[in-house]
Design brief:
7 helices, 10 strands, alpha+beta
């Protein structure tokens, strides 16, 4: 089972390559896997910096909450470009988004956390899953309601219809993050072909009182809420 944390900060627009180069250097010259880190993905979205860290053990148990031995050096190098998002930020842990829902087909590697999951089997032709991160704003305190809406939807046909093999929801302040792992066609194709399906329209309608576009002026469809990946690393051993 993989344990995931998501860090949310602000980022200077256009600094993606600089930040990627910093992590690339330290991921090559140190061994994050010695601290249990097996992968990381960096994404950006409308001035946000999103850092998904994957571990092979629960950091709450191991106490290894930092992703690289050179944590302080990295913080100093990316400091001019990456700054805290939360209004009440006091230390790095305040930038970690709170997971409030997860789902995966029963028996899959992502399952087993005791949170809502149904008995659907992964698609027979499932290959290496792709990842999509959707960013929006969430109404304060709406996390339990949003989790319930997804639990009801995930008990139906929509996950299989969309090729979803894992779903994680996070929030931090007013930011809502929806991490999807999928197999099959690209996400934009799945949305384009199925946005008129009753199950898809229903969950969008149910979520509308609680989830809103991060930037209403640039939002035209669900595809406008997808964050851009600019760096990925995975441990080879």
């Amino acid at each position: 089972m993989t344990f995931r944390n998501v860090i949310v900060c602000r980022m200077v627009p256009g600094s993606e390559q600089t930040v990627a180069d910093v992590f690339g250097y330290y991921d090559r010259t140190t061994r994050p896997q010695d601290l249990g880190v097996v992968g990381r993905t960096l994404l950006s979205f409308h001035g946000l910096y999103l850092h998904l860290i994957e571990r092979d053990a629960d950091p709450k148990v191991t106490g290894q909450t930092r992703g690289l031995p050179a944590f302080q050096q990295i913080a100093e190098k990316i400091g001019p470009y990456v700054t805290p998002y939360p209004r009440d930020w006091k230390n790095p842990s305040d930038s970690v988004a709170k997971e409030f829902y997860r789902w995966a087909p029963t028996g899959s590697p992502a399952d087993g956390a005791g949170l809502p999951a149904d008995g659907a089997e992964p698609p027979a032709d499932a290959g290496e899953p792709s990842r999509t991160v959707i960013v929006a704003r969430i109404k304060p305190g709406a996390e339990p309601t949003v989790a319930q809406i997804f639990a009801e939807s995930d008990a139906g046909p929509l996950p299989t219809m969309m090729g979803v093999t894992g779903r994680w929801l996070y929030s931090i302040d007013d930011v809502y993050l929806h991490v999807l792992e999928r197999t099959g066609e690209p996400f934009d194709g799945a949305v384009a072909q199925r946005h008129d399906q009753p199950a898809f329209a229903q969950i969008m309608d149910d979520l509308s009182p609680y989830i809103s576009p991060f930037d209403p002026e640039t939002w035209g469809s669900p595809l406008d809420a997808v964050a851009t990946e600019f760096y990925r690393w995975r441990a080879e051993d």
